Amino acid sequence: MDSQAGPGSGDYVALEARHGARNYQPVPVVVDRALDCLVWDVEGREYIDMMGAYSAVSHGHLHPRLVAAARAQLERVAVTSRAYYGTTLGPFLARLCSLAGFERALPMNTGAEAVETAIKCARRWGYRVKGIPDGQAVILVARGNFHGRTSTIVGFSSEPSYRDGFGPFAPGFRHFDFGDMASVRAAAGPDTCAVLVEPIQGEAGVIVPPPGFFRELREWCTRERVLLIDDEVQAGLGRTGRWFAFEHEGMRPDALVLGKALGGGLLPVSAFLADEPVMGVFDPGSHGSTFGGNALAAAVALEGLRVLQEERLVERAAELGPYLMGRLKDVQRAARPLIRDVRGRGLWVGVDIDPAQGSARRLVEQLAQRGVLSKETHETVIRFAPPLTITPALIDRAVDIFRQVALQAIRR
Ligand SMILES: *Cc1c(COP(=O)(O)O)cnc(C)c1O
Q1: Taking CA 18 as the corner, what is the angle to CA 13 and CA 23, rounded to the nearest 5 degrees?
Q2: Do 211 and 130 share a structural domain?
Q3: Helices (H), 172-285
């Protein structure tokens, strides 16, 4: 490294490439600083963050109220483990339960841990409440799902690259086609304890379910005594223009999984929520996490919920989502046949690229070169999920650049 000029972006890329495991293929941008919807690289180049860390930065980077809440808590206590009570966890859980409409919440750290919590809860509920013979409980999951990266969770992924070489996998999961009730019914049996499903499949490419699917699924789950577990780790907390995506479907799940934005863009905070008849299957010793619900995390998450509410960020997503979508559809019309589809809900849009016409990854890299951060998923979809604090002016700037990049691609 050049000691006079200081290390440059290339040096940091080289260090990660040399010493990190190769489990990611990052877009070559080295983020050094960020504030709200903007980030800057080591050389001081500015980027609009249209990715929002997969929904983890819904409040914008380093929201001043969240930084202040973290600082204040850091003057008191950060981590004690759950061996004791604290002054931030109770208020956080109370607020979260009241917002989501559930009686109880169990705090964890990452989304995958909250999903694991859901799996354990559903199985125990299946044995103790539904009366399924021990060891036989089955959870139905959608093809194309994404629920995290633990060995149990990737075991029921339908994506080969997430699974290859990581077996043997835990039994007790069966697949159905997302959005297809007939397929749910065909996959089910007397030992089915739960359906675990995303309200919109994010990693699969922002796949919105057909209208009515969730209402039918809700009715079927009630009839068959099957828990409907809604994984809103990515969709929840305002992303879709409602506090929770299930509100669009006119139904209420039996349990809810939250993460990502719950940590206010500062910390990993997740939670599993349910009412007493379901959450009641956990007794002391049955589940836990050293860091889950720690004082610092709870203080930040509580302030994060207040900020979403007081700054009306959910309403903002509801207003600006259709604006972003409309502008991207204009680009689609201008850049046919490169863009096959533009879909999503709220500030969460997938732009589906025809692989015969162009590469989503190339477009993402060209966007980055021109100062717009996004990320491809499944090789053909470019995902836009900016902080909910994004402004119309920044959307315009980002979409104008996307238009240039798309038009250049079709001219080639
Ligand atoms: C990101 C995500 C997870 C996993 O969360 P991590 O914090 O990465 O463990 C689970 N479910 C959904 C729907 C997600 O988008």
Answers
A1: 85
A2: yes
A3: 181-187, 213-224, 276-279
